[in-house]
Amino acid sequence: MFNLIFNIIFRSIKLDKTLYRNNKNFGEPAVYIAGLIMILDGIAGAFAASTIIKTNIALSGLTALFTWFIWSIIIYIIGVKIFPEKNTKANFRKILSAVGFAHSPGLLRFFAFSPEIVIPLIFITQFWIFASLVVAVREILTYKSNFKSAGVVLITFLIIAFVSISLVITRLTALSIN
Question: Which of 102, 89, 100, 99 shows the shortest CA–CA distance to 142?
Answer without folding.
Answer: 89
